[in-house]
Amino acid sequence: MASYEKFEIRKKYPRSRCSALLVIDAQNYFDSMVRPILPGLNATITLCRGASVPIFYTRHRHKTLDPSSIMFEWWNGDLILDGTPESQLIPDLLRSEADPIILKETYSAFHGTGLEEKLREMGIEEVIISGVMTNLCCETTARDAFVRGFRVFFSTDATATSSPELHDATLKNIAYGFAYLVDCRRLREAFSAS
After folding, report:
1. Are 93 and 58 in contact (CB under 8 A)?
2. How far apart are CA 54 and CA 96, in angstroms?
3. Which residues contact 46 (CB under 8 A, 6 or more apart)?
4. pLDDT for 117-173, tens place per residue?
5. Distance between CA atoms of residues 46 and 99, nearest Å
6. Exposed, middle or buried, 63 (CB in 10 Å: 0-12/13-18/19+)?
7. Number of Cα atoms under 13 Å in the Cβ half of residue 147
8. For residue 170, with 0-12 CB atoms within 10 Å meaning exposed, 13-18 middle and 19 or more buried, which class applies?
9. What percentage of the chain's residues is helix, strand, coil (to nearest 5)?
10. CB 3 within 8 A of CB 172
11. Could you tell me the pLDDT band of residue 45, with boundaries at 50, 70 and 90?
């Protein structure tokens, strides 16, 4: 039994007619984290596309390196600069040219991006979170979605971070208070029942 399963006290499947997949920051900068989950991430993308679930990608990037910003301070200046190869999505993602890319400069995909408005215009009520880093941008986006009134589903096999302990800690917290956990098997079951 995975360490987070005892906190998974609620179970539900996403509904394809009102869900969107968010692929968070699967960029060259995070290649070492994305590569191990790429099969699960691409399987999630394929399952969602097959169920006509809209797919949004995010790119975390900074237009300038501002030493007075909290992100610069927190990460000792090691930020992703827009326009660099590191800021681009990894080429092995199964992304369609029609899939929108949301540009962000903080952990949440909702903060200052217009994502919420786009989702509401499309009638989206649920988001499926995938990508990296589990404990930073994925978790912050999931929590932000929850407080904005979206039902949140969080992938266990299409998210990753720098350590298994941080990944599991997020899954425990998310399962307990913010999101239903899913994986490719559960998505396949959910979308085949739709």
Report:
1. no
2. 11
3. 94
4. 999 999 999 999 999 999 999 999 999 999 999 999 999 999 999 999 999 999 999
5. 13
6. exposed
7. 8
8. buried
9. 40, 20, 35
10. yes
11. very high
The continuous run of DSSP H or E covering 160 comes out as strand 151-160
Place of tokens 């990944």: 167
In total, the chain counts a number of residues equal to: 194
Single pTM value for the model: 0.96
Cis geometry, peptide bond prior to residue 122 (ω within 30 degrees of 0): no
Q: Is-contact 61 42, C-beta < 8 A?
A: no
Residue given tokens 């909290």 in the structure block? 70
Q: What's the pLDDT band for 8 if we cut at 50, 70, 90? A: confident
Separation CA 108–CA 144 (nearest Å): 7
Q: Output the pLDDT for position 129.
A: 98
Sheet with 180-182: list strands edge to edge. Answer: 101-104, 55-60, 19-24, 126-132, 151-160, 180-182
Alpha helices, H only, the chain: 31-50, 70-74, 115-121, 139-147, 164-177, 184-193
Residue 67 token pair: 């030493």
Nearest to 58 by CA among 92, 106, 117, 121: 106
Q: Please state, in angstroms and rounded to a whole number, the distance separating the CA atoms of residues 103 and 98.
A: 15
